[in-house]
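Anyone able to model this chain together with adenosine-5'-diphosphate?
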Amino acid sequence: NLSYKEDIKATRQSLPCFRSRTELLTMVRENQVSIIVGETGSGKTTQLPQYLYEDGFTTNGKLIGVTQPRRVAAMSVAKRVAQEMGVKIKEEVGYSIRFEDYSSPQTRIKFMTDGILLREVLLDNDLDKYSCIIIDEAHERTLNTDVMLGILRTLLQRRKDLRLIITSATLNAAKFSKFFGNAPQFTIPGRTFPVEINYSKYPVADYVEEAMKKAVNIHLTTSIESGDILIFMTGQEDVEATTESIEEKLLEVYRKKGEASTFHDVNNIEIFPIYSALAPELQSRIFHKLDKTKRKIVVATNIAETSLTIDGIRYVIDCGYSKLKVYNPRIGLDSLAITPISLANANQRSGRAGRTAPGVAYRLYTEEASETDMYSSTIPEIQRTDLSNTVLLLKSLGVENVMKFPFIDTPPIQTLLNSFYELWSVGAIDNFGELTKLGTDMSKLPLQPSLSKILLNSITFGCSTEILIIVAMLSIPQIFKRPKEREKESDKARSRFFIPQSDHLTLLNVYLQWKSNNFSTQWCSNHFIQGKSLEKAEDIRKQLLRVMEKQNFTLKSAGSNWDIIRECICTGFSHQAAKLSGLKRYVHLRTGMHTKLHPTSALFGMGDLPSYIIYNELLMTSTEYLVCVTAVDPFWLMESGLLLYDIKKQEETNDYSIG
Ligand code: ADP
Ligand code: MG
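re: yes, here you go
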């Protein structure tokens, strides 16, 4: 135990941050706002909070709050810091992410997503329980971080004792300094090693396959001691596909040599996927040190770009893309799009190979493409996503004129106007742009405006028990499994749950059947369902139930009248309504954009597709797909005045008729 403690101490002292400990603490003592810049892995996230703690920043009973743009990062670094301090999570060190609070009155260092801190400002405008706030990974410029910085600028004038630290992994921190009245900047001296960059000679047709080939080639042609491999992909699907195809290929190679019959026999390698929806116990495995005879391959989303540092990486393979939430002004909505990364991201990714020794990076795109297709840095989220929730939040905080709020970078005026429109069309703000009672109630729920609205409306519709389940089910990723080579079988299993009019009701059906099978895990695997996801949904359902009960809402079931559930869902999604036009094609009502039903939709089971639908999400690939769809009655849509106008407009050009 003693040597373990010594080990931790030595590791902590070896980090670049440590040499600047005194300077950092002096800067924070002497300045209300400090900007700290340091290479990924220098110890900003795990060490700074501990330095402040050791230096007495919490002796007055207050907390050190550290925000992270990503849930996985908040959870993972909290666990690490707890381990270094020799405490259990929820004791001195805790974390809080949406629907998961692992903090207690004992907690002094609290990691959380930036979204959680925004919620806390709603409840306590002065953030009184904190002595110090660290806005970590500010270079990511997430929407929530940007909004938080704007709020903090005013808040700091009321709380002269509060300390704010902004950290960034890129040198581009002058902007933050300027925003906070020329706050001092400190750059942690660090050493990085050269990384050899290799571009692809030709455009890559399939980056999953290409990444697999590169990884397998590195593994077979270099010595294990030369280092581990980190592969950047865009999301869960291609992370899993890459992991599987590397396993397959290696198995094939070792089988030919007669050295293995299953992948388990290949004992010189371990492959770890990591993405946000991965179960927490699997996430922390990426940090485990393997013995010297084994090589580690980590296949990650951009979570491993700057948020998490995995030691020992010497080879990086970068697919050149990431999944970005982008606002589509044509439809006035966000969609997730696979987009080329920026040059700044590309450099961060390559840099991961040179943290402890010289490394090699393989970019799966041509040098020319990097010059023509990539921006120098990513456009801040605030300039490319839907701002309805942000506007709702700022309104609830009493910001009179949202247009005049101090944004580090101003969002496009059209996006702000669209957000006002959306909030007005769901009834959250009135004709004067002021919050309505519904709007106030909505802002108290940790959900998107549309979901908050259907949950609140379900009280009047008398179907709150069911809507609560649907909302919880919509809050989790991937319910159905579709394992390779068992696609047909799993598709068939999925179709048994279909409720023809609605994917939302299909989700409800899955939940209810799971419940009537006593929430059994075995039942889940028998039906190709992610048991862990359902457990998460059940957890979220219970938490939302508590929020509802706190506000004295009584829940009621719709019984067998499932039409009322569809009508209720329609009230929150009338701005995401579409009309059938030709085979499987739908035209978005407000804008006339053409889209297609996603092949996984339950609606395909209906002989004729319904004339009107609302959808939960738009997926942009080469085709624009509607995901999670429900058939609706046009009369329900017409309840909202402007949609009546839209339908009339359609009527003039189309063959629309009622009844
Ligand atoms: P920064 O925030 O400056 O990028 P971190 O504080 O995240 O740096 O990382 C400092 C060191 O702590 C790195 O060497 C990293 O590998 C290690 N580390 C961080 N999280 C974990 C963890 N969960 N398990 C093991 N090591 C970790
Ligand atoms: Mg960090």
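The radius of gyration is 26 Å.
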